[in-house]
UniProtKB/TrEMBL annotation:
The protein, known as: Anaphase-promoting complex subunit 6-like isoform X1
Any matching Pfam family: ANAPC3
UniProt source species: Camelina sativa
Keyword Repeat: yes
Cell cycle in keyword set: yes
């Protein structure tokens, strides 16, 4: 068969893939690979098998070719097959030996030399080495080695700032503190045309700065503009992801009604934006909107029955109507689906705390504090449990830990003031600091104590 005819069949394979006709793609790719025995055609056949979910066959084809030992693309695709098969140890073996330190710098395991991931600035493809680092992180995460997972995710985003998935895992799983997130972003090497991406990443990370600094970050990104095919200038001001970040910030500021209104508008525009959905659920919980929680839970379970978020939503509904045992069952189901879903762990602990089952609540909070070192809420709730049992010194220690992680949450200062009051220590300064944080709806001129007393701020 002539080369021109073979190239036409390759075109058929690419067209089948673009139309999601994977069985057809597999059929024609197999014939091309048989005719040429070219590594590129073998790789194309393996890709078609992978997309058609024939993971075991794709892995066998790649492994039998022996090219897998010297070609990163082959090795990566073979490791992706093992990922889909949940064979995590074999996945790591396929990716080869390498070490990573706390700064995300990768070393060759044999000679100890730093592995350089430089890429051509004109190349807009994501560096394959970055993808390999990310896959290593996923494998270690699945093996419950969160320390190694964190380091490999950092290596992935450092190898190529376009690898958003690595940053998403670090942020969503609260693997880094606010300072560590800022330090990581400042170390990334963005190309000149990616200034907007640097600004966007700054909006994604923890929003623990003072209000003016956060507002400046959003304003800078909203002013970023570009043009499409010579048309008028456009901006990111109405981008759904950016507005979801802003809603998250409103929730952080205790502006629950404002947050709920924004997320409601966003979900009208994009009903399946899951990050926005999570913030919407949180705001509805704070507002006691059980009807909205019920509707959201029904829709999520119908559309995403295998996602932790869906069962978390069911738990939120039951928690809102004070059926804590039922809430606990669904929060537990969410954690069993995705052990790295922090809201479910917090909800699970709160469902015990609401019934004054302190030991079980503390166990859930401690698990969350261990899994999510960048999140201050587990530590804060541990302090609250200690305060409920009048262990004020221990409570104070955990409140101070929460303050170190998140120095801008008014609830932390409120709890510090409450425990200082019970320990007969001076508290007006704490509440003055709290009131100066620019959270207008968080705390007014009085702080409500857990036992129902009120302390007037001097």
């Amino acid at each position: 068969m002539r080369e021109e005819e073979i190239e036409k069949i390759r075109g058929v394979v690419r067209d089948c893939v673009s139309k999601h006709l994977y069985s057809s793609a597999i059929f024609f790719a197999d014939k091309v690979a048989a005719l040429t025995n070219d590594p590129a055609d073998i790789y194309m056949q393996a890709q078609a098998l992978f997309l058609g979910r024939h993971y075991r066959r794709a892995f066998h084809l790649l492994n039998a070719s022996k090219i897998v030992l010297r070609d990163l693309r082959f090795r990566y695709l073979a490791a992706k097959c093992l990922e889909e098969l949940k064979e995590w140890d074999q996945c790591l073996l396929m990716l080869g030996d390498a070490k990573v330190d706390e700064d995300g710098i990768v070393y060759d395991a044999k000679d100890g030399n730093v592995i350089d991931f430089d890429k051509d600035a004109a190349d807009r493809e994501i560096n394959i080495s970055s993808a390999i680092c990310f896959l290593r992180g996923k494998a270690y995460g699945a093996l419950q080695n969160r320390s190694q997972a964190r380091q490999w995710y950092k290596a992935a985003i450092k190898a190529d700032p376009l690898c958003y998935e690595a940053l998403e895992c670090l942020i969503e799983s609260h693997m880094l503190t606010s300072e560590e997130e800022s330090s990581l972003l400042s170390s990334l090497q963005f190309s000149p045309e990616d200034g907007w991406l640097s600004s966007f990443y700054l909006c994604l990370i923890k929003k623990y700065d003072i209000q003016s600094t956060i507002d400046a970050k959003f304003k800078k990104l909203e002013n970023e503009s570009g043009s499409v095919s010579g048309s008028s200038m456009i901006t990111l001001a109405n981008n759904t992801d950016l507005l979801a970040c802003k809603a998250e910030y409103y929730h952080q500021c205790c502006e629950y009604q404002k947050c709920f209104e924004l997320t409601s508008a966003l979900l009208e525009k994009d009903p399946f934006h899951l990050k926005c959905t999570l913030v919407h659920l949180a705001a509805a919980m704070e507002l006691g909107n059980s009807n909205e929680l019920y509707l959201m839970a029904c829709n999520l379970v119908k559309d995403y029955p295998s996602k932790a978020l869906s069962w978390f939503a069911v738990g939120c509904y039951y928690y809102c109507i004070k059926k804590y045992a039922e809430a606990r069952r669904y929060f537990s189901k969410a954690t069993s689906i995705d052990g790295s879903f922090s809201p479910a762990w917090i909800g699970y602990g709160n469902s015990f705390a609401s019934q004054e089952e302190g030991d079980q609540a503390m166990s859930a909070y401690r698990t969350a504090a261990r899994l999510f070192p960048g999140c201050h809420l587990p530590t804060l709730y541990i302090g609250m449990e200690y305060m409920r049992t009048h262990s004020y010194k221990l409570a104070d220690q955990f409140f101070m830990q929460a303050k170190a992680i998140c120095p801008s949450d008014p609830l932390v200062y409120n709890e510090l003031g409450v425990v200082a009051y019970h320990m007969k220590e001076c508290v007006p300064l704490l509440f003055t600091v709290c009131l100066s944080l620019n959270f207008p709806n968080a705390i007014n001129d009085k702080a409500t104590l857990q036992n129902g007393e009120k302390l007037t701020v001097q």
